[in-house]
Amino acid sequence: MTALRWKPTVTVAAVIEQGGRFLLVEEETKLGLKFNTPAGHLDPGETPAQGCAREVLEEAAYDFTPTAFLGLYLARSRKNSTGEDQTYLRLAFCGEVGAHHPERPLDHGIVRAVWMTLDEVRATVDRHRSPLVLTCIEDYLAGVRMPLSAIHTHESVLTAPDGEA
């Protein structure tokens, strides 16, 4: 019998706080509308910090500059569409929010970006897309911060493989 290769899905996420409110996105899922911090898959050719900044722009229409690494988080669930067992490896960042671009269309499935108080985030935990949403926010509030240099991206990630443009 051949063992299945375990490959967690790598995601990047931003915890953004401004004036006591946190930036979340409300998105359509097969299980209804869910809340998440701006987050998504790490794309080829980018560092985790770059991917996080891109996801915030695509999902919430805000510029974002990661300034600290919050941590690496693992969560396991069943894929909504197939019931397949999956594990997510989330690299979470905090940083500075920049300009808002309200004219920019949001990613497919994103209904809106919303600023929520901690009490509102806690009151909607049953509607969180991931069990890691509140955990990351609570780590941020606890003062967890690591330097961005805690994540090393080898130059090979940022360049095309030999023979490709």
TrEMBL record:
Keyword Repressor (UniProt): no
Pfam family, one: NUDIX
Residues in coiled coil: none
Keyword Magnesium applies: yes
Gene3D superfamilies hit by this protein: Nucleoside Triphosphate Pyrophosphohydrolase
EC number(s) recorded for this UniProt protein: 3.6.1.-
Domain Nudix hydrolase: 5-138
Cofactor: Mg(2+)
The entry's keywords: Hydrolase, Magnesium
InterPro entries attached to this UniProt entry: NUDIX_hydrolase-like_dom_sf, NUDIX_hydrolase_dom, NudJ
Highest taxon of the lineage: Bacteria
MF (Gene Ontology): nucleoside diphosphate phosphatase activity; ribonucleoside triphosphate phosphatase activity; thiamine diphosphate phosphatase activity
Quaternary structure annotation from Swiss-Prot or TrEMBL: Monomer.
The family this protein is said to belong to: Belongs to the Nudix hydrolase family. NudJ subfamily.
Protein name (record): Phosphatase NudJ
Source species of the chain: Caenimonas aquaedulcis
Gene responsible for this protein: nudJ
